């Protein structure tokens, strides 16, 4: 059995990847690899508080592998810190890193390029799954998530903080991917088959930063 890390954003695609990997005897998920903004102590891009992700990992029964990032963070610094993390992973007996990417070829190619020569295998457990069917399956299987970040160029800011459910899927504008794969929205999973217990959250204020609307989730 290969010991691997899973790139963990706290959102539904990485959470569903964990669910899929748990059903495959080939892999043991030894850690959830999560990048944090050092200045705000939140998950990069999703804007989720670090303490919520720690509770989420505890509910999943998988330890976090935190990677702190400065703010602002250049791509060069990001890649340097990730290279350090990859080296630490190999030294710890990790053989691969899984990603929750669905269909963006350029993103997959970037990951594969950065993994070359690291000794780690890039793994894509949910790659190529039809996103409408996938979104519906997640919901039917009990995944519960809140939208934490919305790109207001593609969705109205009122979508921030909404539940990821069938109602949401039914009102998404034409052209918006049902899983938000093109960055239309990001999420935080607070319950589902990959978690042993729910992570109670309440929706706080919505803050606009550039074109993004962030909904502040807080534990209860």
Could you give me the name of the CATH homologous superfamily of the largest domain?
HUPs
Task: Label the overall shape.
Answer: globular
Radius of gyration: 17 Å
- Which structural class matches the secondary elements? alpha/beta
Helix content: 25-40%
The proportion of residues in beta strands is 25-35%
Number of helices: 6
Kindly identify the CATH topology of the largest domain.
Rossmann fold
Alpha-carbon distance between the termini? 37 Å
CATH level-two architecture of the largest domain: 3-Layer(aba) Sandwich
The total of beta strands comes to 10
Total domain modules: 2
Mean pLDDT: 95
Unreliable stretches covering 5 or more consecutive residues: none
The first-level CATH class of the largest domain is given as Alpha Beta
Give, in order, the helices and strands: EHEEHEHEHEHEHEEE
Please describe the biggest sheet, giving its number of strands, its sense, and whether it closes into a barrel: 6 strands, mixed
Tell me briefly what this model is.
The chain folds into 2 domains: 2-123, Rossmann fold, CATH 3.40.50.620; 131-219, no CATH class.
3D structure, described in words:
This protein has 220 residues and is of the alpha/beta class. The chain has two domains: 2-123, HUPs (Rossmann fold, 3-Layer(aba) Sandwich), CATH 3.40.50.620; 131-219, no CATH class. Helix content is 30%, strand content 29%. It contains six helices and ten strands. The chain has helices at 12-22, 50-60, 75-91, 105-115, 131-140, 166-171; strands at 2-7, 27-37, 42-43, 64-69, 96-98, 121-123, 144-151, 185-191, 201-209, 212-219. The strands form two sheets. Strands 1, 2, 3, 4, 5 and 6 form a six-stranded mixed β-sheet that branches. Helix 1 (12-22) links the parallel strand 1 and strand 2 (27-37). The model has no long low-confidence stretch (mean pLDDT 95).
């Amino acid at each position: 059995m290969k010991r691997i890390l899973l790139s963990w954003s706290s959102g539904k695609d990485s959470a569903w990847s964990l669910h899929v990997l748990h059903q495959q005897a080939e892999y043991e998920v030894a850690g959830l690899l999560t990048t944090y903004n050092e200045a705000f102590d939140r998950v990069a891009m999703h804007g989720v508080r670090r303490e919520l992700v720690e509770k989420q990992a505890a509910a999943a029964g998988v330890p976090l592998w935190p990677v702190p990032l400065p703010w602002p963070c250049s791509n060069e610094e990001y890649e340097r810190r990730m290279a350090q993390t990859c080296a630490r992973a190999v030294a710890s007996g990790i053989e691969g890193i899984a990603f929750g990417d669905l269909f963006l070829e350029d993103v997959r190619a970037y990951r594969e390029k950065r993994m070359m020569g690291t000794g780690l295998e890039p793994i894509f457990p949910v790659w190529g799954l039809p996103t409408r069917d996938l979104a519906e399956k997640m919901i039917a299987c009990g995944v519960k998530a809140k939208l934490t970040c919305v790109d207001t160029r593609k969705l109205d800011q009122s979508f921030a903080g909404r539940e990821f459910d069938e109602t949401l899927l039914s009102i998404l504008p034409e052209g918006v991917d049902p899983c938000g794969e093109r960055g239309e929205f990001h999420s935080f999973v607070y319950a589902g088959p990959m978690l042993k217990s729910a992570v109670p959250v309440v929706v706080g204020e919505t803050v606009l930063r550039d074109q993004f609307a962030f909904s502040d989730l807080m534990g209860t």
